[in-house]
Amino acid sequence: MWKKLYNIITLNPNYYMGILRVYPKNNVFKKGILHLVTSLNKILLSWEIPLNNTKISCRFAHSIGIVLSEIAKIEEGTLIYQNTTIGANFENVNAPVIGQNCILGANCNIIGDTLIKNNVKIGAGCNIAKSIIEENTKIGMGVVIVNSKIGKNCKIISGSVIHGMTIPDNHMVQPKNGQIVRLSNDGTTAEKK
Q1: Are the beta carbons of 84 and 108 closer than 8 angstroms?
Q2: Which helix (H) or strand (E) holds 18?
Q3: Residue 154 domain boundaries
Q4: Which of these, 111, 114, 82, lies nearest to 99 by C-alpha position?
Q5: SS (H, E, C) 121-137
Q6: GO MF terms on file (predicted)?
Q7: Is residue 26 located within the same domain as residue 64?
Q8: Distance set, CA 80 to CA 55, 94, 120, 124 (Å)
């Protein structure tokens, strides 16, 4: 009973999504609760989660600052951390599809026609757009992936930028190591250290 009361008072999205799926689509009670909870959560907790979307069946570690597209599809067992955006493009088509048992770290942005398959772990601060990420891939913090295809069982090390690339299965991507370069007075490269 205390857990149920706690979930009601804290406006836990997992709790309300479960309740709202029980009622028929056109139920007046469901529409009223849906509007009330959605409005309160936008104001109090700064999150925008379409509670009426039956294609979203994930869990939220911390629901502050989460924005999910109304047309996104997120499968069971996926865990989403705070300040994460999963959104469609401007025309509200081609929203991301996220498979089962994925983990999306804090401050992730997954935008547009993106497919993330099962058991993918994405670190904090990643930006992913218009890409396909195959099963069992691990992506480090601060990675940017745009218009790319990442194979199965890959590891993308923190700080990598992948644009327009295809990474084969079972490969690792590392960010390019920094080089110290001395510039001449005219701005051209003089020597490498």
Answers
A1: yes
A2: helix 13-20
A3: 54-192
A4: 114
A5: EECCCCEEECCEECCCC
A6: guanyl-nucleotide exchange factor activity; serine O-acetyltransferase activity; translation initiation factor activity; translation initiation factor binding
A7: no
A8: 15, 20, 12, 11
**pLDDT tens, 42-93?**
666 677 777 666 667 788 887 788 888 888 899 989 999 999 999 987 776 7
Examine the fold and report which residue of 52, 72, 90 is the final residue of a domain before the chain moves on.
52
Residue with tokens 């920094």, as numbered in its chain: 178
| 25, HSE (Cβ side, Cα atoms, 13 Å) | 2
Name the amino acid, one letter, at 151. G
Q: Is the dihedral of CA 88, 94, 96, 100 positive or negative?
A: positive
Count other Cβ atoms within 10 Å, centred on residue 57: 17
Contact between residue 11 and residue 34 where contact means Cβ atoms under 8 Å apart: no
Question: CB within 8 A of 31, min separation 6: which ones?
Answer: none
Q: Give the predicted TM-score (pTM) of the model.
A: 0.74
